Amino acid sequence: MPFTADAAAAQQVQERLKSLQQLVHEIEKKRHQSEQGIISLQRYAQDEKPGQSSQKLKSLYKTAILQGEQEEEVIRKALQKITEIRNIKNERRIQSRIASNKESIRKGIWMKMLSSSAQTLPLYVGKIGEKPPPLCGAVPADPNYIARVGDMVAALVKDSGDGENWILAEVVSYNNTTSKYEIDDILKEQNQKGRHTLSRRRVIPLPLMRANPETDPQALFPQGTLVMALFPQTTCFYKALVNKPPATLIDEYELLFEDPTYQEGYSPPHYVVQRYVIAYKQKNKQNTAT
Question: What are the residue boundaries of the structural domains of the chain, listed by start?
Fold first, then answer.
C-alpha cells in the first residue's frame, strides 16, 4: 500500500512537471510577443507627427495590453502547477506520518528544512486593485478560519515548569464538536510530550503566502511593531520589535528580541523570514517566553 501511494503521488507530480515545462515554453513565447508589441508601440509613438490620427496608436496600446494580460494568465497557470506540486508532496508527507513511516530526523536537519520551506513559501501576486488575502504576510486569518491538517502553526503549550511557551507545531486534526486542535510539536522526537490538545485561542495559523514589499507593503508589519517570532535555530516564538521590515521579496525581517540581559532590553538584530513572524498575542501568565 505505501508503495502504491508513493507511486501515485510521484506520477501526479510528474504529470504536473510536464505541464509546467510546457507552460514555461509558452511563457517565453508570450513574453516575446509582449516585448515586440511594446517595441512597436514605442516606435510609433516616437515617429508620430502632429495632427496625425491617434487611432493607430490606440490600437497598438490595446494590443500591448492584451498581450500583457495573456502573458500574465500563462504565468499564473504555471504558479498554480507549482502550488499543486507542493500540495501533493505535503499530502504524501502527512499520509506517511499517519502511517507511522516518518523517519527520525536530527534537529539540525529539521531546522534547515524549516528554513528552506519558509523561504520558498509561495509569493502572493495579486491583480491591480486586489488586496492581499488572509494569511498573506502579516494579514491574519479570518476569525472562523480552521487550519488544515499538516499546516504549521504557533501553539501555546505548557513547559516543563509552571510556564507556557509558544512553539512551532503542526496540525494533526481538528474536532468541530469540542473546537479543539490536536497538534504535534515540530520537534516531537526530541521532546517528551510531542502531542497536545489545544483550544483555538491557543493556536495561531502561520502565513501561507509571502507578501511582496514592493507591491503590497501594507501586508507587512511596519517598523516599531511588537510581534512574536521564531528565534533563530530554535522552535519557540518570542516577543520582538520590528527594526526593519523586508524591503524586497527576498528580504527577511530585522528584529530585536526582548532580552533583559542587554541594557536596552533588546537583543542585537536577528533576521527572520516572513512565515515565522506573527502578531504579538498577550498571554494570561507572564513567564520567560513573553
Answer: 2-47+57-102
Low-confidence residues of the chain: pLDDT under 70: 1-3, 48-53, 96-108, 110, 188-193, 283-290
Cβ atoms 67, 34 nearer than 8 A: yes
Find the Cα–Cα–Cα–Cα dihedral 47, 48, 49, 54, rounded to 10°. 170
Q: Residue 233 — left, alpha, or beta (φ > 0 → left; ψ -120 to 50 → alpha)? A: left
Of the candidates 284, 290, 273, the residue with the CA atom closest to the CA atom of residue 138? 273
Among candidate residues 250, 248, 252, the one with its CA nearest the CA of residue 215: 248
Q: Let me know: does 209 contact 152? Beta carbons within 8 Å.
A: no
Q: How far apart are CA 204 and CA 135, in angstroms?
A: 10
- CA nearest to 182, candidates 169, 191, 166: 169
pLDDT digits (tens, 9 = 90+) for 210-246: 999 999 999 999 999 999 999 988 899 999 999 999 9
Evaluated on CA atoms 159, 184, 230, 207, the torsion sign reads negative
Which spans in 99-146 are helix H? 107-119
Q: How many CA atoms lie within 13 A of 267 on its CB side?
A: 16
Which tens digits make up the pLDDT trace of 9-41?
Answer: 888 889 989 999 999 999 999 999 999 988 888
Chain-centroid distance, C-alpha 134: 11
CA distance 85 to 219: 26
Please state, in angstroms and rounded to a whole number, the distance separating the CA atoms of residues 138 and 248.
15
Q: Hey, is 20 helix, strand or coil? A: helix
Give, to the nearest 10 degrees, the angle between helix 55-98 and helix 2-47: 160
User: What are the Cα distances from residue 104, in Å, to 101, 117, 118, 189?
Assistant: 9, 18, 21, 7
Cα–Cα dist 205/24, whole Å: 33
